[in-house]
Design goal:
elongated; about 140 residues; mainly alpha
């Protein structure tokens, strides 16, 4: 655009891909010819039964170990659940006993409070009677 408007470009544009001077990527392998044939194998295919048997045996061992661990985990979970249920039953029984004990103690407290009020009333009347008797005795001694 600058050049079209009459300006002069002093530095030439870089050539090639990313300024490297390489202008095109060309595949040259098709000009070399066909690749060589693969090397001959030492013998025909033979089954490696011992090695594959070892791997399979190892996998079987892992499966058996996993089955054992699963069985142990299920047994432990069942036992833990039974223990939890027993503990919950004991706690419920203890709460029932504690509630009954609290009710009994509240009843005893109410009974003792009633007895205290009765005793305090009797004390007042007995004190008045004692004062009256003391005044009578004092009047008898004064004569």
């Amino acid at each position: 655009i600058y050049e079209n408007m009459g300006g002069e470009v002093t530095t030439p544009a870089p050539g090639g891909i990313a300024g490297t001077g390489i202008e095109a990527l060309v595949q040259l392998s098709s000009r070399r010819g066909a690749p060589p044939p693969p090397p001959e194998t030492a013998a025909a295919y033979t089954k490696k039964s011992q090695e594959s048997g070892g791997v399979i045996a190892m996998m079987d061992l892992l499966v058996r170990d996993l089955d054992k661990e699963t069985t142990v985990a299920e047994t432990e979970e069942t036992q833990a659940q039974k223990e939890y249920e027993a503990m919950m039953a004991e706690c419920a029984e203890k709460r029932t006993l504690d509630s009954k004990s609290l009710t009994d103690k509240e009843a005893a407290k109410a009974e003792l409070q009633s007895s205290l009020e009765t005793s305090q009333g009797e004390k007042k009347s007995t004190t008045k009677e004692l004062m009256a008797t003391q005044q009578y005795l004092a009047s008898l001694h004064a004569e």
